[in-house]
Specification:
Number of strands: 28
Structural class: alpha/beta
Subcellular location: Cytoplasm
Oligomer: single chain
Family: Belongs to the disease resistance NB-LRR family.
GO molecular function, one term: ATP binding
GO biological process, one term: plant-type hypersensitive response
Strand order of the largest sheet: 9-10-11-12-13-14-15-16-17-18-19-21-24-26-27-28
Number of helices: 36
Radius of gyration: 34 Å
Main location: cytoplasm
Largest sheet: 16 strands, parallel
Amino acid sequence: MAAYGAVVSLLDTVNNTILARPDDLQLQSLHEKVSFLLDFLEKCTSLRTTNQSAQQSLETRIRAVAYVAEDVVESKITGKAAYPAQDPSQIRDSADHLTESQTNVWDEYPIFPLSHLAHLLIYILIARLFDATVQKLIMVVVIQFIFPVSPFTVRTLTPVTFQNLMFVLAQVLVPLTVQILFPLCMLNFVTVVVTELMRLALLKGVSLTAPYLKPGEILIRAWFNLDDRAGQVSSSEADDSELLGIMEEIDSITKDVIEIENVNGADDRRPTRNILSARSSSSAARGDLSVGSEKNVVVGLERDLEDINERLVDSSPELKIISIVGMGGIGKTTLARQVYGDSYIYYHFDTRAWVTVSQEYSLRQVLVGLLDSAKILTEKMYEKREEELAEYLYKSLKGRRFLIVMDDIWDMEIWDAVRRYFPNDCNGSCVLLTTRLSDVALYADSLSPLHKMQFLKEGESWNLLCKKVFGEKECPHELEGIGKEIARNCGGLPLAIVVIGGLLSKESRREEYWRSLAKNLSSIVTKDDEQCLEILGLSYNRLPHRLRPCFLYMAAFPEDYEIPVLKLIRLWVAEGFLKPDGSKSLEKLAEEYLDDLIERNLILVCKRSADGKIRTCNIHDLLRNLCLRNAQKENFLYVVKYDEDVLQQDVNVTPRRLSIHPNLLSIQSEILYNREIHNSTAHSLLCTGARLIYPSRVYLGYKLLRVLDLIVVRFFHFPAEITMLVNLRYLAFTYNEALPPSIAKLWNLQTLVYHNWTFGKCPIFPVEICMMPKLRHLCVTPCSLPVPQNVQMFFLGNLQTLSEVRNLRCRDDILKRIPNLKQLGISYDVSPTGEWSEYQLEALVNLHQLETLKLVVKYSSHASESVNPPKLAFPERLKRLTLAGCGIPWSSMMIVGALPNLEVLKLRKNACKGSEWEPVEEQFCQLKHLLLEEVDLVQWGANEAHFPRLQRLIIRSCYKLKEIPSCIGEIPTLEMIELVDCHHSAVTCAEKIQEEQESMGNEELKVRIDLRRYFKNKFYSKIFH
């Protein structure tokens, strides 16, 4: 269920609102009630409930009330923070009227705070004396008349300083002045004045709007907001009434929760659980275990069977624990059945026993199942106690070489309970486990390597499909092409192939039918085979509640789409799926969630980065279809396609999230401006797939949006509606001009991804970007980041990622304002007259949390010859460093080599100058990955002592390097040497290193040679000459 994600997201919203309204007792009460429900959800995965339907119904109610509560709380935030225009078109983008001559509005409209205070006093008096219509007209006239003749000027005030000064005047000077000038009967009026002034200063965004709005406009806009806010959001009384109703529903749910917990507490004291009988478990072991098939058809397991059998009968006398691990339907049980029934294995072991554990189990039933399978069980044993059954099992195995298969084990408790009854007599006995959970397998024996099941290859998939459909007959020639496509679309998952094979074997063998089936393969498989759904659904049902929303979110991405892990993690954070842990960042917590899902074989790893971290991932089509079905069922997510508007199925549905999957390169914009989508109260809008070049219309009227991912949509004019979406946590889009200052209105924003594909231009970020304190990740195509005149104005304490920034001045006072930066990408354009001193790159050492740095230098013509290389210094925490174009001497690499935590070093395109590199011993102690690309290196005096932990060495386009030191092969951790477009002498050296290592028994070192550029140039030379 998606209830957990809904409750965690609600708590995050309530916490943020309480920070702004600490005296709101209603919100504090809501926080306490919702926290109780969260505790229940965290425990209910492990609850042994006898009424699953009641628990699921309760979780559905929790999810629904959490959605409604979050909408009410967020609507308050939206109404308070948004600009007060009745029609969004009336709001002018600040970029439209902020000219170069208006860089400081205080210069054009000089005011003195006391004068401003007088204007506010007049405003309050008019508000008390006249009706609404007259009030507006009078205030417009008064403000515009008074401002031009203000007698005093304070040109140096920043907006923040101005606001602080207003607070002082409101709290101290105003009451004192009025008490002196007015009789005591006016003191009550003073209280009203002070209250109005403080509320105005706090809520109307003076500090936010002052940098790019005329002071007169600030007052007029604030004035209109007081009267028009009821048209934007519900009144305070209505909001309070809604929250009261919500809390009454939560109280009702809480009572039911307590009842369920009481019932479950009683169930825990019962000796057994409601499960299938042991006889049915053991009989399943004796029967055919192939999924969805009457006849046992096995393809592609030959190598797996050989590996497992070798491990079972090796010479080691100790009790062996071998685990077969993989996702549901990949063939774990089928492989175990092949091993169990192998004739050699049958005669090798004295006793064999099989038990299927599954998700629901009891120790008694497992013991009975093993005794029955081993043909030891008698009728009298059924009446024995658990301890006596365990004794029977132990004695029956003692002194005998046995093979125990525990199929489909889900947790560690049952292993701890039964492990003690498997005697270790040092006679070569073995326990074979099958599980979907890597952590369970490692818990059973952390020293025994896991046998991880692999997907079938295309040829194997086609072979299995043919056997399921045609038996021993051959496939008709006209069906072979489409048949291979169907097999390929099954993604190598045996379960899918078996199910679709069974369907095809019973239906018409016409080409048209097969083609129609191939288009919607995954949905047909899960729809037409309940056993398939049941098998896959076990993994989802077993998931802890904290992981379920993260898993369901995978349906937001298209089939076979490689998902960037960094993007996925930031989306999870923005969606509010993660319960904060004070000792870890949200991003670190999300990484752990992802690792957990991977260990459960629900998410697949596609690519890894140089340091071994996961770069991209995806999900099998069948599991994605399972995600989609559950997500739509729980109103968690709806997917909209160009040729299929899912919302048309039920126009009354209001999905929480919308994901648009355009499947044509030239998609029209109607899908982004569909009237049915307008009616949605969506909190997320994602558009992934083919790049949209010319969207004419994009509807952005979702007031409660948290996530807006339109990176594939190119805007030629900035959509001003975006700045009204003040609840946004994640924003990604493509825009061909500089961002306007009004982007700073998005004060909740955590991640901003901004692409500008106007080549030759380097847009400048508005200085207001520095006043977005919740910003965590700022990822852009090269942009310049301005430095505010008053550095104290900005503090981005949460910023972790900043890339790609052009010509960043690394002053100490600037870097101290981003103390938690972990990833930085910067580039510099250097002219012949340029000086590195203005950039102060040596100050990078002050970024104490920095782990990843990419530094690129681009010289204009002949600048590299006339400008000295930069002076560099790096923080000790740095793990990944990429340098390009810096032109530093090789001797300066001592600075890099001294970094104690450096794991990845990439030197690209003249990062270093000189023909010789002599590394120093006791440096690069942790380096695992080294890339040399397009450097002028001729001699490299390296050996095993210089890079003691190196795993991968990659050399690309280093044409002058003719020799690779043979001592490199002596590095014990080295796994790969890769050469791309290198001198043939260097290639010979690498091959010789591999031969030497193989002669010494080192089979782990691989050498990869790629001369694609050489052959490409040779090919073109034949064509053009």
